[in-house]
Amino acid sequence: MIYKDKTNKDLYIVIQLTAKLLHDILYKKKTLTLSQVLDNSLPDIRPVLHSISYYVMRNLGWARTISKILIKKFPNSEFESLFLVSLCLIKSIFKNENSSNKDPIYNDYTIVDQSILAAKSYYKTFPYAGLLNAALRNFLRNMHKFNALVKNSLEAKFNYPEWWIKKIMYYYPNNWQKILSSANCISPLHLRINRRKTNINFIVKLFNENNIDIKVINDFSVLIKNSIPIYNLPGFNEGLWIVQDIKAQMAAKLLDIDDGMNILDACAAPGGKTTHLLEIANIQLTALDISKKRLIKLKENLERLNLYNKKNVHIICADACDLSNWWDGKYYDIILSDVPCSGSGVVRNHPDIRWMKKIDDINIIIETQRNIINTLWKTLKPGGKMLYSTCSIFPEEGELQILEFLRSHLDAKLLPSPGQILPIENLEGGNGFFYAILLKNK
Each residue of 122-145: b (16+ CB within 10 Å) or e? Predict the structure, then answer.
């Protein structure tokens, strides 16, 4: 469902900004995620920009398929992006059988009018405002015909790139449709309670007093049922909780962490798992990440949760594969290796991921993962454990990656582990992850 402001004022600006975001994702493959861009947008338009942008990403396959029928050749990529956004907004008029609200969010006249205004407000699309008007009105007149033409298109039906769909079909022949459909839903908001500061009873009381509907998942996790910006939730500034998917919360609990242990959190930013490790026990922790910007966010999270102490927390910006640049030679008791991945398990949270990735990217990602865990293994003491973690549902990044690692490391033993977790539970169930616990033989 699309959020609508009280008036249609400045809708064309939101359409224009959404088109720019889409253009950056499709043509510039910007690594800055959609959520990060939206966080930096103007507060007064952020809710509607967030809603429309995410809706576009979740319906882009349909729009791309329809657009190729309506316009054989786009005058430029900026026009194409604007046209795709406009088509998705028109799709929002259709009755949604999963929604209790059957009324259109914006009427067709408003969408066409504001889309044309957006075109006229940017020099690269201004000359083609007439083409945009004609194409949109053609679709509105004949939408049933056009929808019938694309009914057999996998990309139009499931709203993923075709290569992505075929990969899921190949690996999960019995439930591929459920995986694709559930991952294309709105993500649930889970909070992990900071056990160093509070407890579940206080959190329940705090949220009830503020009329916020929650569901208790366990003693340290709750699900927020209201649609509220996290910064407006009680306890944020006080560091009483942190946003973390319920399946991501499994990582720290899979390791037998005791006080005094020397632990490495590799690829640590933005710090969800880092903070969890520090909440569980009094440890020496090294948080390693290659991104300076993401480490700034990690430090902010540590400080907000009151978990940052220079004596026991060491934040290092370096390439995990370059040991000479960061490792002091002291072996780790435990390593959490949350390696870079395709993000195929967290499409709910980051619906732009599927459109940024190409099939050729997967092989590069797999090689990066292999280099990281091969290097980190050298820093683990005999008898120590490494938790290999990804937020992917592609087996090449999970089970197959670990099988290859075990073949090449005779001193490694796979312990009982969750393995592949698919995002096919009810919408409160969380995202897709892979976990493997590896023991280094003495």
Answer: eeebeebbebbeebbeebeeebee
